[in-house]
Structures are given as structure tokens and as C-alpha cells.
Specification:
This protein is 29% helix and 28% strand. With 449 residues, it is of the alpha+beta class. The structure holds glycyl-adenosine-5'-phosphate.
């Protein structure tokens, strides 16, 4: 983590620069829900694209899909979520604050949902008042499908995208005529009625997940598990995360979810301490067996090599986009002294930066407008870019640094004579002059190679 980043600074930057807003803010907001602004949606899309490229596009053993959020409710009976996707909740009888019992100091280190707090805390950590007995609280949001609100029309907003993949396993296998190992990847919304949402966008009630269910032959699962742990850890480093801020931790047995034989977490050193970015679980054949049992459908795989019917094991790398968004921002945040002023800079990897190029005429002088607009027209065909002519050039560089724009292109009075512009690099602040005719090639060299 950058020692200069705090959650308060991040929240303020995100609001000021249009990255993240509190949902329905004009009505006082709603806890656990956030809106992504013009720059936020770019960064979020870039994270998703970088993931999709690494796990689908660049591999020959993973395909994509996009399942519906609302599914047949029996899915959640089969998956175990109706019975076990619950957290222990306690209330303070004095100050009325609500806590997750398993998160109170002194409680068991149970981060996976569905765990009972083994060691009980009886006093409120805020006011010392007496706490209620823990009550289990199911985290799934309930809704009704169709006009009648009765038990038969109850449905749930999915708490993980994973189940949409398990129920499509046979469809995808048949449609793609693939053999094991085969991964199915999906990005989409998930919903959890968290008891204590918080730490900005770290724990939300609505969030995006990026999940892969990687189906393998039983017996090869442990080897594939190691493969995915390495693969996913290295992805964060390739996208510029500082090594000292990312670690892999194997969960203890009492931390495992009900379906997992073994789980590793990729953790990030957030301002509030080491916390999970992504879980990489060995889900065994739990889900396919349960869905076969509840649906009555054959979800086995015929292994042509051995002539046997098998139920594949599953390795599941599962990451939350919003959490990664926060971690990438914290990691990139820096402050440095430049000519007696503090420069706030997001040292984001170029693939993640919301705006790749800012086009800046030196001034609003009439003569500079046509060439500056022409340059912008050339640039924006290739990259997400911004045109900014308000205030001094120094101020505009600072504004772009603060949102991580890797390159600025400045049009000045010499441009009118020599048909050249200046490229200014975010981190080094170095400037080079290039002819407009060679601008796209020069930017491409810096942004894509
Ligand atoms: N399918 C497995 C699964 O959902 P999980 O550990 O509960 O496992 C996976 O969630 C990832 O989803 C987490 O590592 C985290 O990045 C993200 N995530 C989970 N709950 C979240 C929440 N309430 N807010 C934001 N992200 C969350």
C-alpha cells in the first residue's frame, strides 16, 4: 500500500474526480451501494477487460458466458446457500449498533460465510453495552417473480455468479465440444445483504464478481489449484501492484466455505490491514453432484481416454471487481513535492488508466483551437481521451496526474509553424516533441508496447 493513501483521501478523490459516488446521494444514500462516475466506469471496465484478456482471450482452455442474475430458486437449495449462506449477527442492547459476531475481536477467525463465532464476545466494542445472542442471518436478497407475492414466486438475487456456470456446464460442454480441463469464465453482478457493509467499496451489498469455474479430472485438481494460485497472483503484479502489498495465504480448515476442500486467498495490504482480494478454492465435485441430484440431470463427463464417466472437480478463482478497483487505486496513489507544490499522482498501469491521453492546447487563444481539435480527433479514434483547455497548463497536468492519465499531448504556438506537438509522460514528467503525422505511432509505442 502507498503509505500516503488513506481511505478518507481515496473517498474524497473518487468523489471529486467522478470515480465513485454514494448511491442515491441526494436522498441521503443507501448503505452498501455505490455508483461509478465517468472515470470510474472506465477504470472498472479496464479491470474487467484486463481480466478477460488474461483468462479467456489469451488461453485456449477457458471460454466465456453471461448468465441471468435471477435463477430458478432450486439452484440455491442445491448449492447450499439457502441453508448455509448466513452470518451470525449481534446487536448492542444499549447503542443499538449491529455487528457480525465472527468479526468481533476475540471471536473465531471465521471469514467464510456460514461460520458460527466459536469464542463469544458479550460486550459491545463501541460502548461496552450488553450484546444479544448471535442470530444467523441469510445474506441472500429475496424477490418475487411475476405479479403474485407468494411462496411459489419467491426468487433470489444471486449471491455469487458461480452457480450460473455450474448449471450451464453441460450446455457449454456440448456446444463447444471441448475436453477437460475446461474453464468457464463470467463477469457479473452479485448481491449480498451484508450485515456490516463498509470500508468504502470493500464490502458492498451489490458488487461485480469475475469468476472462473475450471473443470478438471479428479486427481489433477491439486496441481491445477497451484497453477491458478500462481497465475492469479502474477496477474496482479503484471498490472503493476507492488509486490510487498500482495500476498497469498492458505486458509485454515475452520475458515473454509462449506463446499471447499482447500482455499487460497490473494490478499492486499489495505489501510485497514491485510484483506481478501480474491479467493481460489478447490470446490471438488460438490456443486455438480448437488445439481445432478436436485435437477435429475446427468452432469457427468465421459472421459474418452479411460472410457469412464466422471464428475469433474472444480478450481474456482473468484475476484470482486469493486475490491480490486479500491486496491489498484490505493496502490497507485502517491504524493510528491514538485517545485514546492504537492503533486497527487495515480501511478496506474497504462492498461487500467481511465483516460490514456489528454489533449491540451497551451491556451484558449483562438489560433490554437483548430489544430488542438484536429489532434483530439486523431487521438480519440484510438484511445479514451480528454480535451482540457481550462486554467493554466500546470494545473491541467496536475489534474491529469491525479486521475492517472499516462500521457498528455500539448499543442502550442510552435505547432502552427512546425506541425509538431509535445508528449508529456506522467511519472517522469519528461517531454518529447513529435510531428503530428507520427503522433499515433508515438503514443502507441508508449501505451501498447
Ligand atoms: N464463488 C465464490 C465466492 O463468491 P467469496 O469469497 O464469497 O467466494 C469472492 O467471494 C470474491 O468476491 C471476494 O474475494 C471479494 O473480492 C468479492 N466479494 C465478496 N463479497 C463481497 C462484498 N460484499 N463486497 C464486495 N466484494 C465482495
Amino acid at each position: 500500500m502507498s503509505t500516503k493513501a488513506t481511505v478518507e483521501k481515496l473517498v474524497s478523490l473518487c468523489k471529486r474526480r467522478g470515480l465513485v459516488f454514494q448511491s442515491s446521494e441526494i436522498y441521503g444514500g443507501i448503505a452498501g451501494f455505490w455508483d461509478y462516475g465517468p472515470l470510474g466506469v472506465e477504470l472498472k471496465n479496464n479491470i474487467k477487460q484486463a481480466w478477460w484478456r488474461a483468462v479467456v482471450q489469451e488461453r485456449d482452455d477457458v471460454v466465456g458466458q453471461d448468465a441471468a442474475i435471477v435463477m430458478n430458486p432450486t439452484v440455491w437449495r442445491a448449492s447450499g446457500h439457502l441453508d448455509t449462506f448466513a452470518d451470525p449477527m449481534v446487536d448492542c442492547k444499549e447503542c443499538k449498533k449491529r455487528f457480525r459476531a465472527d468479526e468481533l475481536v476475540g471471536a473465531a477467525p471465521a471469514s467464510a460465510h456460514g461460520h458460527e463465532a466459536a469464542a463469544k464476545v458479550t460486550r459491545c466494542p463501541e460502548c461496552g453495552g450488553e450484546l444479544t445472542e448471535p442470530r444467523m442471518f441469510n445474506l441472500m436478497f429475496k424477490t418475487y417473480v411475476g405479479p403474485v407475492e407468494d411462496d411459489a414466486s419467491v426468487a433470489y438475487l444471486r449471491p455469487e455468479t458461480a452457480q450460473g456456470i455450474f448449471v450451464n456446464f453441460a450446455n457449454v460442454l456440448t456446444a463447444t465440444r471441448r475436453k477437460l480441463p475446461l474453464g468457464i469464465a463470467q463477469i457479473g453482478k452479485a448481491f449480498r445483504n451484508e450485515i456490516t457493509p463498509g470500508n468504502f467499496i470493500f464490502r458492498d451489498r451489490e458488487f461485480d464478481q469475475m469468476e472462473i469455474e475450471y473443470f478438471v479430472k479428479p486427481g489433477t485438481d491439486e496441481q491445477w489449484h497451484q497453477h491458478w494460485v500462481e497465475e492469479r497472483y502474477n496477474w496482479y503484479l503484471r498490472l503493476g501492484m507492488q509486490k510487498e502489498n500482495v500476498r497469498v495465504r492458505q486458509l485454515d480448515r475452520d475458515e473454509l466455505a462449506h463446499y471447499a476442500k482447500d482455499t487460497y486467498e490473494v490478499e492486499y495490504l489495505f489501510p485497514m490491514g491485510w484483506s481478501e482480494l480474491e479467493g481460489i478454492a478447490n470446490r471438488t465435485d460438490f456443486d455438480l453432484r448437488r445439481h445432478a441430484e436436485f435437477s435429475g440431470r446427468d452432469l457427468e463427463y465421459f472421459d474418452e481416454e479411460t472410457g469412464e464417466h466422471i464428475v469433474p472437480f472444480v478450481i474456482e478463482p473468484s475476484a470482486g471487481v469493486d475490491r480490486l478497483f479500491m486496491a489498484f487505486l490505493i496502490d497507485a496513489y502517491d504524493e510528491e513535492e514538485v517545485r514546492g507544490e504537492t503533486r497527487v499522482i495515480l501511478r496506474l498501469h497504462k492498461d487500467l488508466a481511465p483516460i490514456k491521453v489528454a489533449v491540451l492546447p497551451l491556451s484558449r487563444q483562438e489560433k490554437l483551437v483548430p489544430p488542438a481539435r484536429e489532434v483530439w480527433a486523431i487521438v480519440r479514434k484510438h484511445w479514451m481521451s480528454q480535451y482540457d483547455d481550462a486554467q493554466s497548463i500546470g494545473r491541467r497536468y496536475r489534474r491529469q496526474d491525479e486521475v492517472g492519465t499516462p500521457l498528455c499531448v500539448t499543442i502550442d504556438f510552435d505547432t502552427l509553424e512546425d506541425q509538431a506537438v509535445t508528449i508529456r509522460e506522467r511519472d517522469s514528467m519528461e517531454q518529447v516533441r513529435v510531428p503530428i503525422a507520427g503522433l499515433v505511432a508515438a503514443l502507441r509505442e508508449r501505451l501498447e508496447e
